Amino acid sequence: MSDKASTSSVTFTDLTPAAGVNQAFDAVLTATDRVDAAKTFVDSQCSHVSSLSPSSGLVSAVEKLLSSSDKKGAASREAALLVVCELLAKHQMAASPYLSSLLPAILTLMADKHSKHVQNAAVKAGTAIVDVLGPVAKRGVAVEKLVGAIDVSAKWQTQGGRGQPHHQDRRRGSPGKSGHACPTSSPPSPPLMC
User: What is the pLDDT of residues 80-100, one digit of tens each?
Assistant: First the structure.
């Protein structure tokens, strides 16, 4: 076993074999072609939706990577977002209960200051999550996260990146809930218009 795999900051407890999954995930994080590496990882290590269960640690490892904000971690954030996209492409609606918790972090990364690649991957991942949600889940999950993503204290780039591409889809998918959410989203909106 290489030193890199044994010192990995990402661990998976329920996937078998755990060391192989750690090495495969580390390979995604360090790959030059991250899109292909993410697809290979999901195809080989996440063939069943149970790989997304909380006991596996995969979603929490991805969440940990997405919450980092340093410049050196941009490639890791992009790789994690690409893994999310591939997981959603493979498992579709079955993966949404596990991955929808990542939506706030993904919305924040739409305004990542360090990498356009991260921004693009975040838009792709956020769109994929919202697209696989059913109408009821869009109303119950996405609307609250999108409205909650508007934070007046954040910089304007972050406010613009958070949720803006998804508000139109949200309005089309659940117009009744959008109208119901107007009182909640109205107070944070005026500063965004200036």
Answer: 999 999 999 988 888 888 888
Q: Which long-range contacts (CB under 8 A, 24 or more apart) does 187-194 make?
A: 188/147, 188/150, 188/151, 188/152, 189/150, 191/152, 192/150, 192/156, 192/159, 192/160
Q: CB atoms < 10 A from the CB of 31, how many?
A: 17
Distance CA 85, CA 106 (A): 11
Give the CATH fold of the 18-161 domain: Leucine-rich Repeat Variant (1.25.10)
Residue 84, Cβ neighbours under 10 Å: how many? 28
Return the percent helix, strand and coil in the chain, to nearest 5: 75, 0, 25
**Please, what's the largest Cα pairwise distance for the chain?**
56
Q: What does pLDDT average to over the chain?
A: 72
**For residues 56-79, b (16+ Cβ closer than 10 Å) or e, as one string?**
bbbbebbbebbeeeeeebbbbbbb
Joined together, the tokens standing for residue 68 give: 């980092």
Structure-token pair, residue 136: 């009821």
